[in-house]
Amino acid sequence: MKWFKRRKKLQPPEERKTVPDGLWQKCKGCGEILYRKELERNDFVCNNCGYHFRIGSREYIRILLDDGKLIEQDTDISAADPLRFDGYLKKIKEIKEKTGLNEAVATGEGKIGGFEVEFAAMDFSFVGGSMGSVVGEKVKRAILRAIEKEIPLIIVSTSGGARMQEGILSLMQMAKTGSALAELEKARIPYISILLDPTMAGVMASFSSIGDIIISEPGALLGFAGPRVIEQTIKQKLPEGFQRAPFFLEHGFVDTVVERKELKNTVTKILRFFLKKNGKM
Amino acid sequence: MFGFILDFERPIVELEKKIEELKMLADAEHFEVKDEIQRLNKKAEHLRENIYSRLTRWQRVQLARHPDRPYTLDYIKYLITDFIELHGDRLFRDDPSIIAGIGKFRDRSIVIVGQQKGRTTKERIRRNYGMPHPEGYRKALRIMKTGAKFGIPIVTIVDTPGAYPGIGAEERGQAEAIARNIKEISTLPVPILTIIIGEGGSGGALAIAIADRILIMENAIYSVISPEGCASILWRDAAKSPQAAEALKLTSKDLLELGVIDGIIAEPPGGAHRDKEGAAALIAEEIDKFLNETEDYNTDKLIRERLDKFYRMGVFSSNG
Questions:
Q1: Model-level pTM?
Q2: Looking at residues A171-191, what average pLDDT do you find?
Q3: Is B196 on the interface with A (CB under 8 A)?
Q4: Is residue A184 within a helix (H) or strand (E), and if so which, with residue range?
Q5: Best of B125, B160, B176 to disrupt the A interface by mutation (most A CBs within 10 Å)?
Q6: pLDDT higher than 90, residue A212
Q7: Contact between A218 and A205 (Cβ < 8 Å)
Q8: Quick one: which of B162, B253, B132, B257 has its CA closest to A162?
Q9: A54-277 homologous superfamily
């Protein structure tokens, strides 16, 4: 349980919308007032009801990777504005400053339970985790690096879908990442897809729902169309729990729902399964 | 011949009506009006050119959705002989929003897959307005794989507002179905041609639009989101769809500039809906050309080039 101790080193994240500052934090699940330091120690999961707060890519790097260390790649590419979409670059600049992130996904190499992996973690606080050309390119390159280095691929997904401000080019990132997965499959490289709240639309309909093993955090909203769009289309209220992780599990689209505190342990077990002997695939 | 008429089509249609009337009158009364008709025809041609060269993106959207536009089954009727429609995904049911089948194009075997909107109200409901469920995409993939197994080229026809957002669609994995199609089609070992004939609605279109060559009809569109959806997200106002259409750059010309498609198929004067058979003939030339050019394909090279083409798509800046 070495990694368990390591969590004490968890630094409070910088200013983020998903986890507000302050000494106390109200739980969105049960309404309980939680002591923030305690919540942090618990990886932002409510001690009372098990509600999983949304946390960012940096937190998942800390939670999942050995020593919280990611050798990040492709930090030099950033959003352009091919459509000259009103206000897009200004928005990107503001979000970069506010979050300290350079895009909605961080990719690179790290270790989990001693196993080398190619790792990608998305971040919902960066334009809703939306996939534009940069996210698509970084995920594609991560997939291709996993093939080249013959190491397993882990992608932690959370996204509202394609990035509208890049129009059709963002749709093409689905084609780009999805077809790279075909190459990954041919190379017989294991891919573990971890789904967070929420993972929807263009990201769910490309690389997130195609893993060899698909894990979801409890309570995650998962699907293609957003609940609001569905309600407007069918002109009915949706049933309780619709598109949540247990619904997805029940309908057969995730392999298992795993609590955040068990996530690293589960991924390590899976890696051990894939790496049959002498650490070789 | 004049069904549904869009506002900007009206001056042209009215002039054409006048010409028709004049012709009939002249026939009945034995007038000599050849010169006059020639003059009016020329005028109509100029008018058409004038209007169509200045269409806004929103007007193109309306043309792409024109209810008289030829649909997948119209093109199949004009282009494919010995067509046999094949039904069902072998898992849940048949989805009438997607047509899949086999047939001959000028003596060559091809597999054909495409979304189908309905022409009448009853038919529109049955076809779910061309919005497929997961089983539609799974059927499409199943039939495409049949083609791939026997080395038969595939033509897909895109015409959908999008994948259906509904309860059953989510329960049966709409996202998974689309993702799987993208992944599987990207490495199918046969030549694939995609033609976008009307609406290319986001992931619902992309799920059958992974191809070696992607062509689009002059007045068709292809977009990550509908202008209405974009406007309601950006400005909380669907009435601003014309502005959203401008921002999204979704016309055939835009798409060619963005490197997303390989070519534009010109439409008959006034649009495909004014001359369905003419539009079909123009498509036939492109299918013929594609089949000729890919006749002696090398499988590895074909797949490599298809993957690399999608790998290149996107625009970003390097060095932060």
A1: 0.93
A2: 97
A3: no
A4: helix A167-186
A5: B176
A6: yes
A7: no
A8: B162
A9: 2-enoyl-CoA Hydratase; Chain A, domain 1 (3.90.226.10)
Residues facing residue A112 across a β-bridge: A115
Q: How many whole angstroms separate alpha carbon B206 and alpha carbon B243?
A: 24
- Check A230 against B163: CB less than 8 A apart: no
Q: How far apart are CA A146 and CA A144, in angstroms?
A: 5
Q: Which residues pair with A195 in a beta bridge?
A: A157, A216
- In chain A, which residues fall in CATH 3.90.226.10? 54-277
The span from the CA of B195 to the CA of B94, in Å, is 23
Residue A22 pLDDT class (50, 70, 90 cuts): confident
Residue type, B34: K
Least CB-CB distance to B315: which of A76, A80, A242? A80
pLDDT band of residue A280 (cuts 50, 70, 90) is low
Supply the DSSP string of B160-226, one letter for each residue. Answer: ES-S--SHHHHHTTHHHHHHHHHHHHTT-SS-EEEEEEEEEEHHHHHTT---SEEEEETT-EEESS-
Angstrom distances, CA of residue B170 to CA of A64, A129, B138, B209: 30, 21, 14, 21
Contact yes or no for B179 and A209 at CB 8 A = yes
Check if B300 contacts A (Cβ < 8 Å).
no
Supply the mean pLDDT for chain A: 91
Q: Is the CB of B22 inside 8 Å of chain A's CB atoms? A: no
Which residue is it, tokens 């033509």? B155
- φ, ψ of residue A115 to 5 degrees: the values are -90, 135
Give A102 to chain B, closest Cα distance, Å: 8
Angle between helical axes of B174-185 and B134-149 (0-180°, round to 10): 20
In this prediction, residue A15 carries a pLDDT of 43
- Give the C-alpha separation, A80 to B35, whole Å: 56
Q: Please report, for residues A155, A258, B16, B146, B201, the alpha-carbon distance to residue A204 in angstroms, rounded to integers and kept in the order given.
A: 12, 18, 50, 27, 17
Q: Is A7's pLDDT higher than 90?
A: no
pLDDT at A17 over 60: no
pLDDT mean for each 10 residues of chain B (320 residues): 80 90 82 83 89 93 96 98 98 98 97 97 96 98 97 98 96 98 98 98 98 98 95 89 96 97 95 95 98 96 98 88
Res. A278: pLDDT tops 60: no
Q: What is the pLDDT of residue B258?
A: 96
Q: Are A105 and A133 in contact (CB under 8 A)?
A: no
Q: Which of A187, A194, A181, A188 is nearest to A143 (CA)?
A: A181
* pLDDT for A177: 98
Q: Kindly state the helix (H) or strand (E) to which residue B154 belongs, with its residue range.
A: strand B154-160
Q: Is the dihedral of CA A98, A90, B240, B10 positive or negative?
A: negative
Cα(B33)–Cα(B79) distance, rounded to whole angstroms? 38
Q: What are the CA-CA distances from residue A258 to residues A196, A213, A266, B19 (Å)?
A: 11, 12, 8, 72
